[in-house]
C-alpha cells in the first residue's frame, strides 16, 4: 500500500507498520513526483495547493488524513468515494495554551512592556485582572473544553456556545444574548457556510467597551473590516492567530494597532502535537489495512 506523507521528521512516531506499507515523502517544493498518483493513503501538507490540485489524478486514493483539526481547506476537493479524516484532539493542548497566553498578554500588557524594555523606558501602566471575568467560548468542542479547563483556575466564569444546545452549552442562537455579558470572546469555529461571517458588525457592536476578541479558529468567521473599525476606535482588543486573508497583507492596518496581538496561525503547533498527529496517522494506516473503522471521519 502506497502511503504519502509530508516531509516531516516525526515520521518515526508512526510506530511499527506492516511490510506491505510503502512510505513516500511529499517534497516540500517543486513539482510532485508522478508516482504520487498511486497513493492509496495520503497525508497532504496543510494548505498545499499543488497537492489539492493533484487529488483528481490519484485514482487509487482511498483515505485522506489531514494533520489539522479543521478540514475546511481541503474538504471540497476530496473526490467522492474517498474517506476524509481530521486530526481532531491532537492539537487541543497547544491551542488552549495559546488562547490562555494571548488573554494574559492582552490583560497584562506584556507585549507593550516588552517594547518599552527594548527602548529602556520605565512607564508603569495599570494592568487588568483576569479573575472574575466572563469568557464566552464560541465553538465548544474538544479544544473549547481544553480552554475552559485552563481558564477556570484563574477564576474565569466560562459560557459555552455550540451549533446546537446541549446541557449547559448554549446553541448558536444565544450568541446575541451572551455577547454583552462577555469580557472575553474566544472563537474556535471552523470555516463552514454557516460560520463564515458569523461574528459580523452587529455582533461586534454588542460587545462591551474594552472586551477582548480571541480568534484561534478561522479568520473568515470574523468580519475583518468591522473588527478593524472597532479596534481603530480603541473600543475593543483582539488577539488573532488567524486572519482573512492569510498571510495578512503587509498593508493591513492590523499590524500597527497597539490593541491587537497577531501570530501567524501557529496556535496548534508544537513538537508534541506533531508527534500525536503522526501517532494517529500510524494508527489510521493500520486500521485501514485491517479493515477496522477509521477515527475522526469527517466524510
Give the beta-strand count. Answer: 12
Order of helices and strands: EEEHEEHHEHEEHEHEHEEH
Radius of gyration: 21 Å
User: Average pLDDT, to the nearest integer?
Assistant: 96
Content-based structural category: alpha/beta
Describe this structure in words.
The protein is of the alpha/beta class. The chain is 27% helix and 15% strand. It contains 8 helices and 12 strands. The strands form 2 sheets. It has a 7-stranded parallel sheet with strand order 8-7-6-9-10-11-12. A 5-stranded parallel sheet has the order 2-1-3-4-5, covered by helices on one side. Helix 1 links the parallel strand 3 and strand 4. Helix 2 packs across helix 4. It is elongated.
Brief digest:
The chain has helices at residues 49-54, 92-108, 110-118, 142-151, 175-178, 201-205, 224-232, 271-290; strands at residues 2-6, 22-26, 41-42, 63-65, 83-85, 134-138, 157-162, 170-171, 184-187, 212-215, 237-240, 260-262. By secondary structure, it is of the alpha/beta class. It has a seven-stranded parallel beta sheet. A five-stranded parallel beta sheet has the order 2-1-3-4-5, with helices on one face.
Amino acid at each position: 500500500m502506497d502511503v504519502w506523507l509530508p516531509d516531516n521528521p516525526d515520521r518515526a512516531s508512526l510506530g511499527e507498520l506492516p511490510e506491505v506499507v510503502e512510505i513516500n515523502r511529499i517534497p516540500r517544493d517543486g513539482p510532485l513526483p508522478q508516482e504520487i498518483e498511486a497513493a492509496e493513503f495520503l497525508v497532504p501538507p496543510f494548505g498545499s495547493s499543488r497537492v489539492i490540485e493533484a487529488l483528481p489524478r490519484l485514482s487509487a486514493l482511498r483515505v485522506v488524513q489531514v494533520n489539522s483539526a479543521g478540514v475546511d481547506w481541503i474538504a471540497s476537493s476530496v473526490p467522492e468515494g474517498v474517506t476524509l479524516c481530521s486530526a481532531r484532539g491532537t492539537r487541543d493542548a497547544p491551542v488552549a495554551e495559546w488562547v490562555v497566553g494571548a488573554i494574559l498578554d492582552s490583560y497584562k500588557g506584556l507585549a507593550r512592556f516588552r517594547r518599552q524594555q527594548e527602548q529602556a523606558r520605565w512607564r508603569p501602566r495599570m494592568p487588568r485582572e483576569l479573575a472574575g471575568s466572563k469568557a464566552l467560548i464560541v465553538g465548544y468542542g474538544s479544544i473549547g473544553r481544553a480552554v475552559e479547563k485552563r481558564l477556570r483556575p484563574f477564576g474565569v466564569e466560562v459560557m459555552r456556545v455550540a451549533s446546537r444546545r446541549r446541557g449547559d452549552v448554549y446553541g448558536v442562537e444565544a450568541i446575541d444574548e451572551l455577547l454583552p455579558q462577555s469580557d472575553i470572546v474566544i472563537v474556535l469555529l471552523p470555516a463552514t457556510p454557516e460560520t463564515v461571517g458569523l461574528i459580523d458588525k452587529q455582533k461586534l457592536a454588542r460587545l462591551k467597551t474594552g472586551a477582548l476578541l480571541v480568534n484561534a479558529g478561522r479568520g473568515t468567521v470574523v468580519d475583518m473590516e468591522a473588527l478593524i473599525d472597532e479596534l481603530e476606535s480603541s473600543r475593543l482588543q483582539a488577539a488573532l492567530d488567524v486572519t482573512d486573508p492569510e498571510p495578512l497583507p503587509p498593508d493591513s492596518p492590523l499590524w500597527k494597532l497597539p490593541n491587537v496581538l497577531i501570530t501567524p496561525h501557529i496556535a496548534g503547533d508544537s513538537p508534541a502535537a506533531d508527534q500525536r498527529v503522526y501517532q494517529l496517522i500510524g494508527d489510521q494506516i493500520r486500521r485501514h489495512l485491517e479493515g477496522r473503522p477509521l477515527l475522526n471521519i469527517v466524510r
